[in-house]
Amino acid sequence: MASKLQQLQAKAVQVSQYVTKNGCAYYKHLLEQNRQHIVQPATVEKCQELSKQLFYTRLASIPGRYESFWKELEGVKHIWRNRHELKVEDVGIAALFGLELYAWFCVGEIAGRGFTFTGYYV
């Protein structure tokens, strides 16, 4: 156990050295690559204006998302009404999708608890 801890510490030191050595170059490259998205001059007023634009743009997109939701719901209702015409493959895919969602929920719960398992012990 102690040797694994030492290996982990050595790996963490290597990673931190790599980040220290290459972090600045990566930062500069990232900014250069995305220069078109940077607003000059970066003032508080400009940041507030952009924040308001984002908020109201997202607010204005609600009707479109609302319509999309109802279209999706109508599609689900249509499938449910015609469920006797479904193929086994379609049902299997839907079942796997539901199982995957449930698994992600469980993993999220475990991660939220700090990767501890709780429950009854036999």
UniProtKB/TrEMBL annotation:
Subcellular location, principal: mitochondrion
GO BP, one annotated term: proton motive force-driven ATP synthesis
Assigned protein family: Belongs to the ATPase g subunit family.
Molecular function GO terms recorded: proton transmembrane transporter activity
Name this polypeptide is given: Mitochondrial ATP synthase subunit G protein
Keywords, ordered alphabetically: ATP synthesis, CF(0), Hydrogen ion transport, Ion transport, Membrane, Mitochondrion, Transport
Keyword Membrane appears in the UniProt entry: yes
Species per Swiss-Prot/TrEMBL record: Vanilla planifolia
InterPro entries hit by this protein: ATP_synth_F0_gsu_mt (IPR006808)
Cellular compartments annotated: Mitochondrion membrane
UniProt GO cellular component terms: mitochondrial membrane; proton-transporting ATP synthase complex
Signal sequence coordinates: none
